[in-house]
Design a protein that fits this description.
Order of helices and strands of chain A: HHHHEEHHH
Number of strands of chain A: 2
Strand order of the largest sheet of chain A: 1-2
Helix content of chain A: 55-70%
Distance between the termini of chain A: 46 Å
Number of helices of chain A: 7
Strand content of chain A: 5-15%
Largest sheet of chain A: 2 strands, antiparallel
Shape of chain A: globular
Oligomer: homodimer
Chain lengths: 166, 166
DNA sequence: CTTGGAAAGTCAACAACGCTGCCCTAAAAT
DNA sequence: ATTTTAGGGCAGCGTTGTTGACTTTCCAAG
């Protein structure tokens, strides 16, 4: 009876359908803001969000294979392939044949690729910094907790793997 | 000097580039989870996310006009029009000519539309409820604060307008 | 009253990016 | 050595975003 998780009323107000709906709408509207700045930069280069995502994770883990990137992004091969092809043709990404397994392709950003990556991530970090600063450190901790709990287990695995990088 | 916002060091650790990048990746992975369940339901009906968004906001504010819906969704007319046409043809949405202004079309969900809306929002609320429950009320408050700060002003306006609804 | 501009909505054609399915090459297993 | 399995590339399709041209309706200025 004294257990806070079963005492109902005020303690669980944050689980009402209305509160949940507010969260859903907040995710929708915030995600638009989240992608708005990179989208503007990408447009100048005739790229889309898919290019941004590829560039981000190649930068994050240089030398990763196409298959690994596929599972991180959660898309199919062809979806990614079109994007990778244009990035390679444009000289932003380099694809190196594996030394141990010659079927595998290891992906790296070129200097030019790193330059675009910096431009994109700076814009996105600026947005995030503004939001973090406005909300404060305690809110940020909660923000991260809720997002982590919202992920599918597969995605959370990838997220946690990246967590340990330098 | 005693001002916490200028004292540097520990107090601002949450604003390091590394922390910001963690937030960016959390948004990316969490958004996939956020849309995963509705996506599965929509697939059965051969609809996409665009249909879901239209249904959500028509349900939220019955009788809203096409132009209002456009500005809430932040897309162009044709993008929405294709979606609306199929929803109307399939009998999920009704479009009523305005009484005062006969140029305007007021949108409503039919009984069948409401049924799909419930199915979609239940799935999405279940996901959100799980995340909220796992993270706790204080985390939820922070989550909302950060998301609100991340929105573009236009989107935040729409978000706040909806806030006041019953 | 009429006429000209602005606003709401529809439609056509195009680009980005998801998807499935098929194929080739290289590695691994029998 | 031959079959099976895995990594990767390409072709073709559907959804959903875009811009641009068009119709209908409203409203205001002459």
């Amino acid at each position: 009876m004294a257990d806070s998780s079963t005492q109902g009323g005020e303690a669980l107000l944050f689980l009402t359908d209305e509160q949940l709906r507010r969260g859903i709408e907040a995710m929708f509207f915030a995600y638009r803001g989240f992608t708005a700045d990179p989208d503007r930069i990408l447009e100048k280069h005739s790229y889309g969000r898919a290019h941004h995502r590829a560039i981000h994770f190649i930068n994050r883990e240089p030398g990763l294979t196409v298959t690994t990137l596929l599972s991180v992004l959660g898309v199919t091969k062809q979806s990614l392939n079109r994007v990778l092809r244009s990035l390679i043709e444009d000289g932003l990404v380099e694809s190196r044949v594996g030394r141990k397994d010659r079927r595998a392709r290891h992906l790296h950003l070129t200097a030019e690729g790193q330059s675009l990556e910096r431009e994109l991530s700076e814009a996105q970090r600026n947005r995030m910094r503004g939001a973090y600063r406005a909300a404060g450190p305690q809110a940020v901790a909660g923000f991260r907790l809720v997002l982590e709990a919202m992920m599918d287990p597969d995605m959370r695995r990838h997220y946690q793997m990246l967590k340990d990088q330098p």
